[in-house]
Q: What sequence folds into this?
């Protein structure tokens, strides 16, 4: 777009014109001068129209409430109540999407204290208050067996991802078990995710220890803001992360996927964790494109539309599949 | 001698122009704060929002006829939406949630609810209330011009100032009201006034 004058400068000039035209009679000279000013930049024509509209709407200031004329309904069937309700619902995620979590929590207070397994379906995020006062937030397609024992709190994750807010109790260590990986916390908050390459741990508060069974001596200590990947087959990787990065990685807690430079392939993998409607990238060269944006986990269509616009890729959809490119 | 708005003896062109201004004032302007809020939620920077809104008004200025627009609010959003899509196609780095947001807003098929129309009108009414809060002489000028219906010349005589000063006050009042409209009527008008003073200090002309 043409730069130079800012929108605001153009607006100001337009107001000067309207003020001037309100004072003076419109001579042909003045008219010519105005036409000339308007012709320089089409943006000026918009600004001038807006300035005139503001000036005119001030005439209406004293009687605006009495005007019945603003009625855009054109005789079509008016929207049903659910239509009106949907709008705020669609927006809710922007504010943090806590409603999703609250809705899940309302339906479930978990009470068993020995051997109870809790699992989530695809796309489900479940908030599980534990008997010791801790909280578990279970992400999509996850399964955790909880055992509250007198000297130990043990949670065995067989699949998926969970975030834990641990009630402090030094006499009862809180241990998450994923395969041969152990993560131990006293009073802290952290997440554990089972991935193809190993177990990913993110610490949001306090300190946790992690180790592999049989290699207890090689345990690592992770403090808030750190993450690690622990796997049988490779050395433990321990990394510092920015707070914003942690928030992003845990955006699922409020029903969101937060992308900041992830590739299309990574983003698609994320969406496919949550939705029966799978996304497939038919043009492999698109896979490495980096993406930025925040999406609802359950809105693969919105995501693919964004891809359509931002990568200029064709999208074709069916009930079970969204195909990007090709 | 023809007033740009009245169309007296000036034929169809001025009459059309006046009708267009009236239509924009009553059908489009009330939705401008909503459009701006929507754009701000999409994390667009302020200057880009200003540009987009201005370009949308350009489209309204350039259209041969506005008669086909039966749903002005939806149409306003639609114009902005297509401007953004155009820009995104040109831009190399794109925040794609902007598109998601735009897509999420079902404006095209939406019938405006009566509540929203009322809200939009109230919003405009609030902006108009700002007249009463304009700085001293500026407020008198606006009240005399818009409520009592005096001409700028009569106002100048009544207040004992030059016509140029009255004209400048008219322009100044509009700048302040526009700025308040831009930032939402709940914003502090005093801030808009202060900003205006600061901006004009450098590029003053008399």
A:
């Amino acid at each position: 777009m043409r730069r130079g004058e800012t929108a605001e400068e153009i607006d100001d000039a337009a107001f000067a014109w309207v003020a001037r035209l309100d004072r003076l009679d419109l001579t042909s000279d003045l008219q010519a001068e105005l036409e000339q000013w308007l012709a320089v930049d089409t943006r000026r024509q918009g600004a001038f129209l807006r300035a005139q509209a503001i000036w005119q709407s001030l005439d209406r200031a004293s009687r605006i409430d009495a005007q019945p004329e603003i009625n855009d309904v054109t005789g079509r069937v008016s929207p049903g109540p659910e239509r009106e309700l949907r709008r705020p619902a669609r927006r809710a995620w922007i504010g943090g999407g806590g409603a999703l979590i609250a809705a899940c929590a309302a339906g479930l207070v978990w009470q068993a204290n020995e051997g109870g397994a809790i699992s989530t379906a695809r796309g489900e995020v479940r908030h599980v208050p534990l008997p010791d006062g801790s909280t578990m937030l279970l992400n999509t397609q996850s399964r955790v067996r909880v055992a509250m024992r007198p000297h130990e709190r043990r949670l065995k994750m067989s699949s998926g991802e969970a975030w834990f807010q641990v009630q402090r109790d030094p006499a009862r260590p809180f241990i998450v078990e994923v395969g041969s990986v152990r993560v131990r916390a006293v009073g802290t908050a952290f997440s554990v995710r089972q991935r193809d390459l190993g177990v990913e741990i993110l610490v949001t508060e306090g300190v946790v220890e992690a180790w592999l069974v049989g290699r207890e001596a090689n345990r690592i200590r992770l403090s808030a803001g750190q993450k690690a990947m622990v796997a049988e087959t490779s050395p433990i990787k321990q990394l510092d992360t920015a707070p914003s990065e942690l928030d992003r990685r845990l955006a699922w807690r409020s029903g969101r996927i937060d992308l900041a430079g992830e590739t299309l392939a990574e983003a698609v993998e994320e969406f496919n964790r949550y939705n029966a409607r799978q996304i497939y990238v038919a043009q492999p060269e698109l896979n490495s494109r980096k993406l930025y944006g925040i999406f609802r986990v359950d809105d693969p269509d919105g995501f693919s539309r964004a891809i359509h616009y931002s990568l200029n890729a064709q999208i074709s959809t069916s009930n079970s599949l969204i195909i990007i490119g090709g | 001698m023809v007033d740009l708005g009245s169309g007296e003896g000036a034929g169809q062109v001025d009459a059309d122009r006046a009708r267009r201004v009236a239509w924009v004032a009553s059908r489009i302007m009330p939705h401008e704060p909503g459009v701006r809020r929507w754009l701000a939620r999409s994390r667009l920077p302020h200057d880009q929002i200003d540009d987009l809104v201005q370009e949308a008004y350009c489209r309204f200025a350039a259209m041969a006829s506005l008669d086909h627009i039966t749903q002005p609010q939806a149409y306003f959003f639609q114009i902005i939406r297509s401007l953004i899509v155009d820009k995104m196609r040109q831009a190399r780095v794109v925040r794609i949630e902007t598109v998601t947001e735009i897509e999420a807003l079902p404006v095209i098929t939406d019938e405006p609810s009566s509540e929203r129309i009322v809200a939009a009108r109230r919003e405009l009414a609030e902006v108009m209330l700002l007249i009463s809060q304009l700085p001293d002489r500026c407020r008198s000028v606006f009240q005399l011009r818009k409520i009592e219906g005096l001409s700028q010349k009569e106002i100048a005589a009544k207040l004992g100032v030059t016509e140029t000063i009255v004209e400048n006050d008219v322009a100044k009042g509009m700048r302040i009201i526009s700025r308040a409209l831009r930032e939402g009527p709940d914003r502090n008008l005093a801030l808009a006034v202060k900003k205006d003073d600061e901006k004009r200090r450098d590029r003053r002309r008399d």
